[in-house]
Amino acid sequence: NRRWVLASRPHGSPTEDNFRLETIDIPQPEDGQLLLRTVYLSLDPYMRGRMSDAPSYAAPVEVGAVMVGGTISRVVSSGHPDFKPNDWVLAYAGWQDYAVADAGTVINLGSHPDHPSLSLGVAGMPGFTAWMGLTDIGQPKSGETLVVAAATGPVGSTVGQIAKMKGCRVVGIAGSDEKCRDATENAGFDLCLNHRDPDFSQKLRQACPQGIDIYFENVGGAVFDAVVPLLNPKARIPVCGVAARYNNTDSPQGPDRLPAFISSLLKKRIRIQGFIIFDDYAPHFPAFRTMMAEWLRQDKIYYREDIVEGLEQAPQAFSGMLQGHNHGKLVIRVAAD
Ligand code: NDP
Fold first, then answer.
1. Are 151 and 174 in contact (CB under 8 A)?
2. pTM (2 decimals)?
3. What is the pLDDT of residue 51?
4. What is the 295 CA–ligand 1 centroid distance (Å)?
5. Is the ipTM of this complex over 0.90?
C-alpha cells in the first residue's frame, strides 16, 4: 500500500521534496466501514491550500499525514450492507492505493458505472462548483457577456457551456492557443483569449464591446486586472478561486489598487461574492448529479480529461497543474479497473 504524505510545507511552487512516498500495511476496516482500492485520484487546485498552514476555510494537512483528495475507488471488503465487494464509489480516500472509509462518507456508483472518472470532474465537485457559482451568484441572463478564465479546466469549461445554454455571450481565457481552440471549437465558447499574449488586456477590451456582466473568478492576477475596467454596472463576480496566486507566499508588488477597486464596486453597484462549494451548497449536490447525468447522456456538455498514469506521478502532475500544464480535468489513474 503506497501513499504520498506531506513531507514539508512548500514555499512557492510545490516541489517533489514536499512529498514523501511511503509503503505501509493495508488497513483493516471495522463494522460500518469499507476497505477501498483507489482507481482514480483527483488532483485539484485547492490542495495547494491544504499544504499550507496559513489560516483558511479548511484545516491544513499535517506534516507526515497522507495528502487528501477525492477518488474513484472500488470496494475490496465491506462492513456495511449497502456496499458489496467490487462496487465503485466516489470517496475522499486521498493520495494512496488503499484506504478505510466510513460507509456514510462515500457515494455508491454501483457495480458498472458509465465513465466513473467523470464523477471527479464535470459530473462531480468541479462541475457542481461551476453550476452553483454561475447560477446562484452569477445569475446569468440572455444576451449578457460572461468572462471566465481557466477556460479548459473542469470548472471554467462547464461555466462557459452552462452560460451558453442560458443565452450569454461567453469569452474564455486560457493559457495557450491550443486550449483556446478547444474552448471555441469543442466547448462552444464564442471567443477565447490567451492570457500569455502581450496584448491580452487590449484584446479582452475588443472581445467585450458591450462590457462584462459576469466575471466568474477562477484565477485572479493579471486576468482580474484586465477585467475590472470592463465591468458593467450591476455586474456580478462569483469568486471561485484565485489560481494565479496559490503559489505566492508574499503580497504582490506595486501600488495598492484596492481602494480604486472598492470605489468601482460602489459606482457600478457590482456584486462580488466568494463561495466554498460543499460548505455553501452541499444539499444541492444530488440534484446537480441527476441534471448533469442527463446533460451528458444528451451530449449537451463537452468535457476533457487529462489522465496521468501512476500514483508516483502525482506530485509532479499537481505542481504542473498550478502552472497550467494540464489540459482538462487532471486525474491520476492509480490502478487498472
Ligand atoms: P484547472 O484544471 O482549470 O487548473 C487550474 C488552471 O488555472 C490551470 O490549468 C491554468 O490554466 C490556470 N492558471 C494557473 N495560473 C494562472 C495564471 N497566472 N493566470 C491565469 N490562469 C492561470 O482547475 P479547476 O477547474 O479544477 O479549478 C478552477 C478554479 O476553481 C481554481 O481556482 C480552483 O481553486 C477553484 N475551485 C473553487 C471551488 C470552490 O468551492 N470555491 C471548488 C473547485 C474549484 P491556463 O493554462 O488556462 O491558464
1. yes
2. 0.97
3. 98
4. 23
5. yes
